[in-house]
Design goal:
By secondary structure, this protein is an alpha/beta fold. Helices cover 21% and strands 33% of the residues. A hairpin with a 2-residue loop joins strand 2 and strand 3. The radius of gyration is 21 Å and the shape is elongated.
Length: 338
């Protein structure tokens, strides 16, 4: 089994947090988004992972540290890492074709902007599986259209009239991904009009027209990391899930002095908390120091110093120095506020 992870986007909706680090490498509930996604897929598929292909953007943004992180992730699973570049933002289908040299055999394609909990059961009668989640407002999502045999017969983007409430979450399985490659080769050979992109849906619909059977798969949890407010909510949900699964969320080197920590909270390596009330649903990254604060429902990255902040729903980046008091805080990396 292979995993393909398109992750070349700049994550503009998550700025300022994605200005200095690609969105999939931002830590939520203690570890980077893309690491959690890949590890969850590897955990729940029954076949060993042999290769993982990451489609990256401009090397000026996705540099050596990003490459090393992803190589270590793949090798930690016993898989061969492959790094590809999508130099221009030409769409999801074009991103997949950047990995053309490894598009052969059974493969999971997973877009690295969400976190999941799922049992990725593979239907032996299906040529492909598209994982979906029931949503309350399907008009805001791309959804699948099903026939009476529970087979996917169409993909509809943000339907204004009801088609289904099964939203596509961006994770796909192909029994033989070379068939998608063949379909996408025809798609990307066409000339684009201004503002158009090559999308994976075009390749999938072409496969359906040729008789490929697509079945839906369901996930128990699907959490977005698209903007700061949503990412804070995802952090809270992931902390609850990890606590329920019995994961240890407090590093043994973390120091808590004259403070209360209300679980679930993640405290990273060498975190120091003094004279504060933390939690519930707070993540504090490696080397960060918290003093005279009251925080809940918040996500704070590494090596920051936060003082005198009484706040819910804060998202604070790496290497931030903050001393103040606000009701909502979203601060990017390397900032200083006093």
């Amino acid at each position: 089994m292979k995993i393909i992870v398109p992750m070349a986007g700049r994550g503009s909706r998550l700025r300022p947090h994605s200005l200095t680090i690609p969105k999939p490498l931002i830590s939520v509930a203690g570890s980077p988004i893309v690491h959690q996604l890949v590890l969850e897929i590897a955990k729940v598929v029954e076949t060993p992972i042999t290769d993982i292909g990451f489609i990256l953007g401009d090397s000026a943004f996705f540099g050596p540290e990003v490459e090393k992180s992803l190589v270590d992730l793949a090798e930690g699973l016993g898989a061969i890492p492959h790094l590809f570049r999508q130099e221009q933002p030409l769409g999801t289908g074009h991103a997949i074709m950047c990995a053309a040299e490894i598009l052969k055999g059974p493969t999971v394609v997973a877009y690295a902007d969400t976190l999941i909990r799922a049992n990725l059961t593979l239907d032996p009668d299906a040529d492909a599986v598209i994982w979906v989640k029931q949503v309350d407002s399907p008009e805001a999502f791309g959804v699948v259209e099903l026939d009476d045999q529970n087979t996917i017969v169409n993909l509809v983007e943000k339907p204004q009239t009801f088609v289904s409430d099964k939203a596509v979450i961006g994770i796909y399985y192909f029994k033989e991904i070379a068939h998608l490659k063949d379909a996408l080769e025809k798609v990307v050979s066409q000339k684009l009009q201004a503002g158009e992109e090559y999308q994976i849906n075009e390749g999938i619909l072409a496969m359906m027209e040729e008789g490929a059977i697509f079945k839906p798969g369901n996930v128990s949890a699907w959490m977005d990391c698209g903007n700061p407010q949503v990412t804070i909510q995802t952090n809270s949900e992931m902390l609850m899930i990890k606590a329920a699964e019995g994961e240890n969320l407090v590093h043994p080197s973390a120091t808590v002095e004259n403070s209360t920590v209300i679980p679930p909270c993640f405290l990273g390596e060498n975190v120091v908390i003094k004279d504060s009330i933390i939690g519930p649903h707070v993540t504090i990254g490696t080397g960060t120091k918290i003093e005279k604060c009251e925080l809940k429902n918040s996500l704070i990255q590494n090596n920051s110093v936060i003082q005198q902040l009484d706040c819910s729903n804060a998202m604070i980046g790496n290497n931030v120095h903050y001393n103040g008091n606000h009701t909502f805080v979203s601060i990017g990396d390397y900032s200083e506020l006093k």
